[in-house]
Amino acid sequence: MQNSHITRRSVLQAGGAAGLAAALGLATSGPAAATDKATAAGTADIVDLGPAVVQFSLMSSLLVGETVYIGSRNLDPVRIIAFHVPTGKIVAETELATGYSIQALAADITGRYLYAGVLQNAGGTQANLYRWDLATPSTKATAIGRIGDRDVRDLSVAPDGHLYAVGGGSSTKPALWEYDPATGQVLSLGIPDTGATLARAVAATNRTVFFGAGSTLGGGGSAGRACLWAYDRATKTYTQVTPPEMLADPSIRELAVLGDKLLVSSAASTQQSKIALLDLGNPTSYTVATSIGKTAKNFTSIGDQVYFANETGLCAYSRATNSVSQLTLNGPSLGEIWGVDALNNTLLATSGYGFVAEINPRTSSMAVTDLGEAGASASAQTVMGIAVGAGFAYVGGNGVIARHSLSSGEVVNLQSQGEAKDAVIVDGVLYTGQYNSQGIWKYSPLSGQPIHQAADFPAAQNRPLDVCWDDVSSLMLVAAQSDTEGGGSFWTYDPATGAKQCFINPVDNRQLLRAVATREGVSYLGAGLPTLDGPGTTRRAAGLFVIDLETRQVVHRGDLSSVCTDFGALQVSRGIVYGVSDTTVFRIDPMTFAVSVVASGINGGWYSGPHITADEDGLLYTLQGPNLVRIDDRQAMQTLRKAN
């Protein structure tokens, strides 16, 4: 994240995908050696400002009996909490030994066993499947094995007790996996679709397992689109049963068995999502309806009405009329919804904002219970990005932006749908690039208004990764990546007029846009391929590249592997280029390009790559572990200047 007063922008992305490093406005001294070994150059003052963003963050929810079981997101340790609806209290909690988030929950037909699958930072031999015995909730959930895919995205338990799992995130294509509680073994049932990059949905009966997949992540190029496969448990064969109306969508999003029918939804990109109702005995017999919005998930039913979540709230699907309508609710925004269930003709919606809403679908009335107030143990989330200026530091989490007062230390949580991947502060007003498909959001601390969307952009351009401010044009600039279609887009936004522009695939239709910088009204975009094949992907390790913007020649190439092993970020402050990696804050002399360490072992608690920014006085802000820290490198800066 960047402040509007900083007109010299530096961004570095390393690790094999794309690199953009522009110490804009700084002089260069010509070619230098190809290897820069980091050296110590002074001691910086580091002030701990406390946990960066604290809120119980969640990614899954399931009703079993009268209790909603909720899986955490981006919290350490990962955990499941049990919210008892009649009392409105958290009545149990269990921690899992691996993973950082729980997206998949499923219960067996008896309601005794709750299964959970985790998302992980890396694959390996560790477990990613767990079972919690709800008859003894004080006993910790136990690991039952692992699927070969790194991440577990969905689970389903057949009536006979066999568990089925799907996911992705590994170098291989996603498979269908089976856990047999009688033998305790987890087995692969094969890869149904070699074009899919991620499987997000599974539903099982005693005869058939349905596998829903596509390319919600890693789309574009040769990646496949929505696919639905039926696996015959007796013959161990697959049959393709995707409704033709869904083939153009990126992925199948949700599956649920409803009596003798299978409910199917798609995740859309350039079109609206779809809802289909298939005959379990003959999947080629079906009805399909166009839904509202780009996603449809978390099915439940009351009578003949099916209820589900989209990106703006709750929808109802009428089986009688084969049509979808949006519910108008009397209550707060639900944000991103991770669970929809029905209890006593009341809908239960679990919000990413950290609450459970009880909704009367007939009257649209709503009662909300905050999970923190109900007893959920909140802890520091992993962080998306930070911005500092006008007396505040803003830290983006999931479903929340924490506003830190730099004078009083007060922290206020601002509800914001999705994730603030990056942001800029212009005249004291915060503008964010908001994932997923949320465009640009705006917050003014002096207005008294809540944070809200300032500009929308095509939904397929869903992941705004980098934001900067152009003083010359008075425009906010955004580099966005398209997860489903490949490529990306370059956005401009004028806060004064609200005017906006979107330039899709300014490089090509494969390279993902990941960085933007500006100098004297000229924008510079950084992009790279999603894989290590083909032109445009030249690095396998952290590197520094310095470009003379007048001659557009690379004047320096350096090796940063001693301080940066993966993604990194750069920031210009007080005439010095600073960088941060997962482990280290470092500085780069703008004249000699020598690299020296500011703080080692910083080990920031970032979700998808580290960030560093500076305030009006040149003080640096980043993370140390889960905490926000302020760094004053004045003494080292003076030492470097004297040496030069």
Automatic annotation (TrEMBL):
Keywords: Signal. It comes from Pseudarthrobacter equi. InterPro entries: Kelch-typ_b-propeller, Quinoprotein_ADH-like_sf, TAT_signal. Transmembrane segments: none annotated. This is Outer membrane protein assembly factor BamB, contains PQQ-like beta-propeller repeat. SUPFAM superfamilies: DPP6 N-terminal domain-like, Quinoprotein alcohol dehydrogenase-like. Residues 1-34 form the signal peptide. The keyword Signal applies.
